[in-house]
Amino acid sequence: MFEWFHPQYLKDKANKWTTQDFVKDKTLPELYELINTYKPEFIWSDGDWEAPDTYWNSTHFLAWLYNDSPVKDTIVVNDRWGQGTLCKHGDTYTCQDRFNPGVLQKHKWENAMTIDKRSWGFRRQSHIGDYLTAQQLINTLAETVSCGGNLLVNVGPTADGRILPIFDERMRQMGSWLKVNGEAIYKSKPWTYQNDTLTKDVWYTKQVGPGGQTDVYAITLKWPVGKLVLGAPEPTAATQVTLVGYTGASLQYTYSKPTKMMTIHVPEIPISSLPCEWAWTFKMTKLSN
User: Fold this and answer.
1) Exposure of 242 by Cβ count < 10 A (0-12 exposed, 13-18 middle, 19+ buried)?
2) Which candidate, 58, 160, 153, places its Cα nearest to that of 115?
3) Comparing C-alpha atoms, which of 47, 57, 42 is closest to residue 90?
4) What is the reported pTM?
């Protein structure tokens, strides 16, 4: 939303936000130009922590955006429109950087986070340990989507616009995982349970088909050796279980009604035949819940 060192912004800041030269001469004209020229579907505003929304003329702009702009029927905005607006106003809540509540939220939300644990920008002095691993990124993705959130992954380019190889590698690793497991993520919805009641590090999503049938996906962050014990799903006689991306047969399972324990029998699969390297997705059809 703002440029920290723009002279007009610094002047308005020195005047304790009683003047709005930066907003009137730069920020708002650019926002109107972006909307009218490019007709975006999402505006991700930022820089809410220093000045109140009255300084930014946020309510005036948003009223125009939702009522009179060329994208009034399709536009979506976040919650960063001035001091005190976080997690209160907006189509999607970001609440804070790296917001990952771990439970289902009543309002649509987004986890805005960075591959570099310490910065949103490029750092020359960074070390390999400063970057999230592919496993950590995919874990975060599964947790976020299971709880109904979007994941925004930031990378910091260099001054001349280059993306470092470590960022490129991480994004490609996430892409390779999504190529196999995308059906558990894209267009998915939160299920009745977000994580399993018995086994740690298992996160659920669901897909509802055209006929109303529901497929449930259990994303386990650790490879289950021999079996995967689940407490949330309640299978029926028609339930089938498959490992997404695995070309072998459907998996066998047993279910104990008294203990509500579903045990999926996981075969010994050679590493070369595993569908992916991190986090594996078990698809369950025709559950009773």
Assistant:
1) middle
2) 153
3) 42
4) 0.92
Contacts (Cβ under 8 Å, ≥6 apart) of 22:
2, 6, 8, 9, 11, 12
Contact between 242 and 283 (Cβ < 8 Å): yes
Residue type, 240: Q
Show pLDDT as tens, one digit a residue, over the chain (289 residues).
Answer: 568 889 999 999 999 999 999 999 999 999 999 999 999 999 999 988 899 999 999 999 999 999 999 999 999 999 999 999 999 999 999 999 999 999 999 999 999 999 999 999 999 999 999 999 999 999 999 999 999 999 999 999 999 999 999 999 999 999 999 999 999 999 999 999 999 999 999 999 999 988 889 999 999 999 999 999 999 999 999 999 999 999 988 999 999 999 999 999 999 999 999 999 999 999 999 999 9
